[in-house]
Each structure stands twice: as structure tokens, then as C-alpha cells.
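task queued by scheduler; priority normal; single chain, no ligands, no partner chains; default sampling; output format set to C-alpha cells
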Amino acid sequence: MNNPVKNPSSPSLFGRVSLGYVVIESRKLPEWRRFAQDGLGLHVDSVGDQALAMRIDHHRLRLLVREGAAEDVVAFGWQLDGDDALQLALSRLRAAGIEVREISGAEAAERGVERLWAFTGPKRLRFELFTRPLVGTGPLAMRASGFVTGTMGLGHFAMTTREPEAALAFFQTLFDARLSDTIEDKLNGVTLELSFLRLNPRHHSVAIAATRGTRMNPLRTAIHHLNLQAFSLDDVTEAYRRLRGMGFSIANAIGQHPNDRELSFYVASPSGFEIELGWNPIVVHEEAETGWTPGHYAGISLWGHFPENLTLASRLGQMGRGLASLARKEYVAGAQA
């Protein structure tokens, strides 16, 4: 999608969009249940023998893990605040030449929504828009005391891309995303540049990472991590202890980020991408008098976040995937328009 300069008086979707749900495909449903329910502390319901529906608040579903071969995130659901916000998003997608399908019935209900509008987003991830979530019935059975969602949505995700300018333009054009700040850090001798985008008061709902210079993607999975914001610090530390004790691979120990100040740790999910469980990130208040000035930081962590499973084999694997990615063109949403 192009990112034209917008008239300040034109309608905006900023503050009217949040990450609603995430869809994952996996052949490891029993392991996902153990990971999510006993480790992270989420509420998990079985949907027949083909899916797991995970709750953390009043929504019927926030994470859906369904039977499939991808071992990856395959779709993101985006909640819009009302039909006028939905129509504005749809008009922008039509203007960009992006095909959208309206879906209702069983497929929408599987996502925990009344109906949805689906299209292909960056990196061929399926994006789904909705306005009316279905409400969960019965009390939550969670080991965690709770999670911070509400108007800020489920949490955030981070993706690595070979087309960072196009990905930034996509979120800024469609959702009126605002840049919170940027970070640069070195990973295996390669400089990584990260941009953090907010769609509402949550410091960021999307983080976009790219290698400086030659654009490579060292990841097998579509995203690097999905973040959930726990209600208390005890929720984070207890989940860390449980997951380590259960034998799940801790990618990064507890630490703190310099930009959003969140305390968190990263653990490898059964499908390979990571889950970041964090606590107490800053909330960005859009004040007319002062606004928000994006900052730039050197280093992804103020302290901690020490890698616990970084081996020579994993480093070589990342390097090999990065070089292999140079031979593949990455899908850019709306580029055909």
C-alpha cells in the first residue's frame, strides 16, 4: 500500500484498532495445551479434537490453535471500534486494490466473532477485521491472576521482514499507526533495526525488524514473538519458574526493555516462535500540548534478557535461513495495485 500524506482533518483509525486474536496451526495440540494452560497460565478449552480455544478475558477466544501443518501463526484478527471504522478500513483496502472477503457462520464463530472481513497482509499473513467479539461463558480457569487487554487489545507481535518500508507504510496507511520509537541492536554480528508502532495507547501493537544493509530474514516462522501482558509481576515470575521446570526452552531470561520499560521473558512455543510474557509497560497518553516524541535506543534491553538457548547450531541455522531468504521475494500487501 502507498503511504500518502493525509489531510489532518480526514478520518483516522488511530485509537480505534486493537489486536483481537491470533490463529496458530500446529500438529502439537497436547503440547500447546500443556504450554498454555499449565505453563503460561491461560484458560484453555478444547474445540472437538481439532483445536484449542484460549481465553484470558471476557472474549470467547484470544488464541486459537488449530490442527495444521504450518507450526506457525497463520492469521491475525484486528478489532475495530464500530461499523464506521470498519467501513473506513474497507474503503482503504479497496483503494489499494486488496481483495477482501466477508465471512460469517461457522468460520467466524471459530474465531470468536460474529463476522469478519479477511484479506492477505504483509508476508502473506491473513488479516481479519471484526467489530463484534463473542463473549465467553463461564468463569476463567487460569493459573495467572489476569491479563491487560481492554481497548488496547491482546498484546503485540514482532515480525522480521525484508520489506520494512512497505510493512511500515501498510500499517500507517491502513490503521494510521504511529511510530513510538526505534531500536538498533546486533544479533550474531548483524545490525538489526526495529520500529515500534502503536495503534492505541498500548506502546506498540506491532514491532517490525529488519537487518541493516542487505535485507535478510533468519526466521522460519512468520513472527519472532507474540507478547501477552500479565496483570502482575508475580504472574511473570511464576510462569517463568513453571515453564523452566516443565522443560520448555527459555529463549531470554527476565529483563527490561529500554523503550516501553516492560519487564518480561521469552519462551519458545511448541511451534517455534516465541511468547513474551511481560508486565507493566508504559502507556502512551496522546496529549495535545506535548504529544509524543519517538526515541531511538541502542540495545534491545536495559538489563537481563540473557539468551538461554543460543547455541552454535542455532546461530548457524539463523545464518543459513538468512542467506536462503535472499533467493525468495517477500510478498508485499497491495503491491499489485
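post-processing summary
- The chain has a mean pLDDT of 93.
- The chain has six helices and 18 strands.
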